[in-house]
Amino acid sequence: MEIVIREAEERDVERILEIINYEILNSTVVYDYKERTYDFQLNWLKQKKKDGMPVIVAEGENGVIGYGTFGIFRPFDGYQFSVEHSIYVDKDFRTHGIGKQLLQGLITLAKKGGFHTMIAGVDASNERSIEFHKKFGFTEVGTFKEVGFKFEKWLDLLFMQLLLK
């Protein structure tokens, strides 16, 4: 399967919305409860572009099958060189290397953007995501116990970090 990684455009919002809403309803990879609306996701994309933060998509022969983004870790001046990223891949296209291509694209963009570190906030029970990040050199730097609550259980949030050199 040939995959093209490119900058997201407004025409991609519907597929991005489908992918994130599936995760909201069915997983703990995002701690939201309610599905997002088209308008919410469109405004999100526009704000990312306005802020100079990337949103990239993985496009296959049938359209967008995953996306990734990053943004400043926290909204204070001292964090201006630290970004936190997110990657989401359509449930039917996992284990095909799409996440790897998206993360490599984000790492490249972060380096070009002059950022110093990338941070991943991962549900601590998501062993596949933890191992995925370790393959790129991310290390575990701390766990916040029971900071999330979803599906009637408390969730631990693991932070991982990659220093960009």
The name of the CATH topology is Aminopeptidase
- What structural class results from the helix and strand content? alpha+beta
CATH architecture: 3-Layer(aba) Sandwich
Kindly state the number of beta strands: 7
Spatial separation of the terminal alpha carbons: 31 Å
Mean pLDDT equals 97
Can you count the helices?
4
Give the topology string: H per helix, E per strand. Answer: EHHEEEHEHEE
Please tell me about this protein's structure:
The protein has 165 residues and is of the alpha+beta class. The protein has one domain (4-163): Aminopeptidase (3-Layer(aba) Sandwich), CATH 3.40.630. 31% of the residues lie in helices and 35% in strands. It is built from 4 helices and 7 strands. It has helices at residues 13-26, 38-50, 98-112, 127-135, and strands at 4-7, 55-60, 63-72, 82-89, 117-123, 139-150, 153-163. A 7-stranded mixed sheet has the order 1-2-3-4-5-7-6, sandwiched between helices. The model has no long low-confidence stretch (mean pLDDT 97).
